[in-house]
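Handoff note, outgoing to incoming analyst
You'll be picking up this chain. Sequence as last confirmed:
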Amino acid sequence: MRINIPGHVFRSFRRLCLLLMVVAIGIPVAFGQTATLSSGAKVSLVTVSPGQELYSGFGHSILWVFDPVTATDRAYNYGTFSFETGNFYIKFLRGTLPYSISVSPLSYQIEYYQGENRSISEQVLNLTPSQKQKLYNFLENNYLPQNRQYQYKFFYDNCATRMTTALRAACGDSLIYTGYTKEKLSFRQWIDRYAFKQNPWADFGMDLAIGEPADEIATPEQATFLPDNLAAAFGDAKVKTANGVAPLVSSTQAIFTAAPNPPPSPLTPTVVFWTLAALVLAFTYWQIRTNRIGFTLDKILFGIAGLAGWILVLLWFGTNHGVTSWNYDILWALPLWMPLIFFISEKKKPGWFQMLLIFYGFLLLCATGNVLKHNYVVIPILLMLIVRVYYINNSLSKIPTKDKTYGSEVADTKND
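Most recent structure output, in case you need it:
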């Protein structure tokens, strides 16, 4: 019997096999002695363009040491983690998942990234034989089992920032490096530039998850947490030589050029949430015009906002990401809405509910001050919440309350 395997399944399986081969090849070499490079050795920064998946949407950096004389072909990848790590998903969510350096011939990694249709470029570094050897020794020492793991921090310590650390260890004071100086943006703005192109929904989710630390302007060196910025910084860097000062990068070449990716789905968060806002406005207008009281929409809307708030609390206090604290989205994603929104109905209202609305209205007013530095999709969300707060408050006078004196239900006729 012949079995037909879908093409995308076969390609995913082939890429998985390549990764397993990378690990299998890299492990035995690590326990050997560090080779002495020849004068013909080459050291390069290899930059991989962003992929379509969230984890690959910001690109990747690799340091490659190649020596045809000693048959050294070592591509050092600091972006490796293992699914076999105990409590993998908990550690991933909490930001405590250990990352490590892995090593393999560059050709295997090139084939993998070509399979993902990601462009690859190489910058050959203008280093002396002594600096190349120091860099190689530094990387090999990092690859020792007791050294290879590190605490990954997306903004501050990742596959790109580790390249600069290695280069400084090799060059010392002879390196003239200023980082990425062409633009000054906050970490959030850098994320928006990349994530929105790859996946607008992922960009929206990341914007909600990260807090005030992401709104800090990245220094020129901090901006090199993005591989493209790191490549530009290497291109601008200099090294001191016996004859003066020379460019750090001696040559640049394209290894692989990706084909154009299909455009993202037109159902972006902007389209979806503005459409929802228009529907909520229309429905609210209909309820007010027809003098109808109903809170089903509010229980859904504010219930979701409350759940989002609890997630933000978890990210703020229960994780170690470093950039999810002081998240001002909690002003509108108020955790208390879950479950307090379910305490009202068309037939009853708690006495404290109007005070909750006043307090929440103040929080919404404060939340609008954070919009300019945020994802603008928050604007229709705030609009929906403000409109429904107005509707709920306007309907309170029409909800029966129990008379404390006689124990009967009477209508509250107080003005709004």
